[in-house]
Amino acid sequence: MGMSHQIDALNLGFGPPGLRFALRNVTRTVNADWFNNGGPGTPQQDAMKASLRQGGPSVLNIYSVNFSGTWSSLLGYSTFPQTYTSAPTDDGIVILFTTLPGGPLASYNQGKTGVHETGHWVGLYHTFQGSCFEPGDYVADTQPEATPSEGCMEGRATCVVGDVLEGEVDPIREFAFNF
């Protein structure tokens, strides 16, 4: 379980579009308050990122924490590129430490949470962004979804758009199963 394996997962996930990540360095900070209470918008998250953030807008900072309390069901969260100008110290992704590759959280320990959150960091939205209405996730070749799903649900088509008919397999399924 480690950040180098998370970078491997990022390169696997973002290889087809040609994005490449390299591990610049890892810092380990012992702060139980940040680790356990670093949820989105919390004072702990703000202090953690203000203290630890490195680099500019092209540098992905990954923070691994143990979400607790209100955030105990959260796997991760991310900023979007458009927020960098107004809040540069908030930039980066925060993931549950047990989702790192090889971590103890079965079904979530392959680094895919980090890949998912990094997708947001590079500007990708969820396919259910905007429900079935334009512009959705702003990506023309992904099937919009009315609501979030749990896992990859075969045959799921919650919006009928263009050439996709109700009941057809959502093409995003291919990515989910092949990644």
From TrEMBL:
Q: Which residues form the Peptidase M43 pregnancy-associated plasma-A domain?
A: 107-159
Annotated GO biological processes are:
proteolysis
Gene3D superfamilies linked: Collagenase (Catalytic Domain)
Pfam families the UniProt entry points to: Peptidase_M43 (PF05572)
Key word Protease present = yes
Keyword entries, A-Z:
Disulfide bond, Hydrolase, Metal-binding, Metalloprotease, Protease, Signal, Zinc
Q: Which family does it belong to?
A: Belongs to the peptidase M43B family.
- What name does this protein carry? Peptidase M43 pregnancy-associated plasma-A domain-containing protein
Q: Which organism does this sequence originate in?
A: Ephemerocybe angulata
